[in-house]
Design brief:
Chain lengths: ~170, ~120
């Protein structure tokens, strides 16, 4: 049953991912991505990561997708639809990047061993709940990445405003 | 316990609700095909009542103002998400957690102040 569910989620994620990048209409891509995010949340649930599953739905499906849609509306879509969906320029650079990503993934797959790793076993996570376990990890061990995340958000605000905001006359 | 050997059964109600919600939309629209009449004619296909016929293709370039609002929303959404695990553990970690969270909020407050000063929150026409 668990395997069945996992294969369902995994296959749908892969299939939708392929469909999204080959889709000619970018708006359809975004809508399929909504479905993809929900299936990702399902995968997170199978991994006991309840908080991540909820965040996946709230932040990705709720907020980041809106951002994608606005980006789509900002570019002129009518010409994009007529174009071939695959980028022709920089094909080799793309291939190298894809291969590097594949090697990273494969290394992860082959180095994977079953069983508990580190301090947070599944029993512990279930006992203190995933959100609490994650909070403990973030706010003690991983403070620096957390503050860097804050800095990146700040950069996003300032960068977005600096690029997109019309300068006032005078003031 | 090994991941992938048991089910998060406490989420079954949510799965059922999702299935029902999707099913309701799909089934009502699909079943309706067998009952509703479909006799289109030219007058019926024009815009309903006082609706105007489209004067331009609907996919024109949107104003960047919408994007600004969207990116501000995403940033502060993510900030709020980080508060959830923090609210659960700050009493355990103590003053240290409070300081680091206030540092985080301060960083975003700088962004907020910048947005305010740049009048990104005003809706100019």
């Amino acid at each position: 049953m668990v395997q069945l569910l996992f294969f369902y989620f995994a296959l749908v994620v892969i299939g939708l991912g392929l469909r999204i990048v080959t889709c000619k209409n970018p708006v359809h891509s975004v809508l399929l991505m909504l479905l993809l995010f929900f299936h990702m949340a399902g995968l997170y649930l199978l991994l006991n990561a309840e908080f991540l599953a909820a965040v996946q739905v709230i932040v990705y499906a709720g907020a980041i997708l809106v951002l994608y849609l606005f980006v789509l509306f900002l570019v002129n879509l009518r010409e994009e639809i007529k174009m071939s969906p695959f980028v022709q320029k920089g094909k080799w650079a793309g291939l190298v990047a894809a291969l590097a990503l594949l090697i990273t993934f494969l290394r992860g797959v082959f180095n994977f061993t079953l069983g508990p790793h580190g301090q947070y076993t599944i029993e512990k996570v279930q006992q203190i709940t995933h959100t609490k376990a994650m909070g403990e990890a973030i706010y003690t061990t991983y403070i620096l990445p957390f503050e860097i995340a804050g800095l990146i958000l700040l950069v996003a605000v300032i960068g977005g405003l600096a690029l997109a905001k019309k300068e006032d006359k005078g003031a | 316990m090994i991941p992938g050997t048991y089910l998060p059964t406490e989420y079954l109600p949510i799965l059922i609700m999702l299935l029902f919600a999707t099913g309701f939309g799909v089934v009502t629209l699909w079943v309706g095909r067998f009952f509703r009449l479909r006799r289109p004619y030219a007058e019926k296909l024009i815009a309903y009542e006082s609706g105007n016929p489209p004067s331009a293709p609907p996919r024109f370039r949107f104003s960047i103002k919408f994007y600004l609002i969207a990116i501000l929303f995403v940033v502060f959404d993510v900030e709020a998400i980080f508060l959830y695990p923090w609210a659960l553990v700050y009493d355990k970690i103590g003053i240290f957690a409070v300081v680091e969270m206030f540092l985080f909020i301060f960083l975003l407050l700088v962004g907020y102040a910048y947005a305010w000063r740049k009048e990104a929150l005003e809706w100019e026409r």
